[in-house]
């Protein structure tokens, strides 16, 4: 019971007591006029009315107190439900955030895997290459083997370069590298003083790609091999052909000088 409710009950009781006292004094004043039985009945009736009023008031107060307690319990239950909902919502939000992080991580892994697969596939997929002014499609293995053979030649490993270029031509007979392979193979053989084989490969270049960027150089190399083989007549003929076929080339200037030396 609250303090306000206690004050209310105390005030009500005081009012009842005061009323009873007043009534009793009134009865006493007229006691002489009433018989004793009638006075006692009047007092009993008044007391019963007073007790009944007090009981009603107590019942009302008790009912009000019970209602207040029930209301407070309802508020407490509602507050607990709200708190549980808040906790559930926080858990759900946390689960959603975790799910979002998981999805993001999976997407990142998927992207990394796709990039990894793409990079690995590139190692096996043909690609465009540009060599000696010629653009063509070559497999990764072709690029690797040609670069390795050329590296041997540039390092002065002429025997190894000769073998590498011969094997390349056998392995990739239709490769776009073929004119360049024939040119550099001829140079490796020239360095090894294998002049006859060098002439064969230089002529093969002129046959398969007469307009190749290195065609004039190949023709000049043929003449040089002929000079080394003491074939002056053949060398003179080759120098003259260079002046006719490749008049604007650097090889033509060298051929003109060498031709004058042969006379």
Automatic annotation (TrEMBL):
Q: Does the keyword RNA-binding apply?
A: no
- Domain Outer membrane lipoprotein BamD-like, chain residue ranges per copy: 146-263
Q: Does the keyword Signal apply?
A: yes
Q: What is this protein called?
A: Cell division coordinator CpoB
Q: What family, per the record? A: Belongs to the CpoB family.
Query: Which NCBIfam families does this entry report, sorted A to Z?
Result: tol_pal_ybgF
Question: Which keywords annotate this record?
Answer: Cell cycle, Cell division, Coiled coil, Periplasm, Signal, TPR repeat
Task: Supply one GO CC term from the record.
Answer: outer membrane-bounded periplasmic space
* Signal sequence, renumbered to the chain: 1-28
* Coiled-coil blocks: 75-109
Q: What's one GO BP annotation on this UniProt entry?
A: protein trimerization
Q: What lineage does UniProt assign to this protein's organism?
A: Bacteria, Pseudomonadati, Pseudomonadota, Betaproteobacteria, Burkholderiales
In this chain the TPR repeats are located at 179-212
User: What is the role of this chain?
Assistant: Mediates coordination of peptidoglycan synthesis and outer membrane constriction during cell division.
* Location relative to the cell: Periplasm
Coarse class of the primary localization is: periplasm
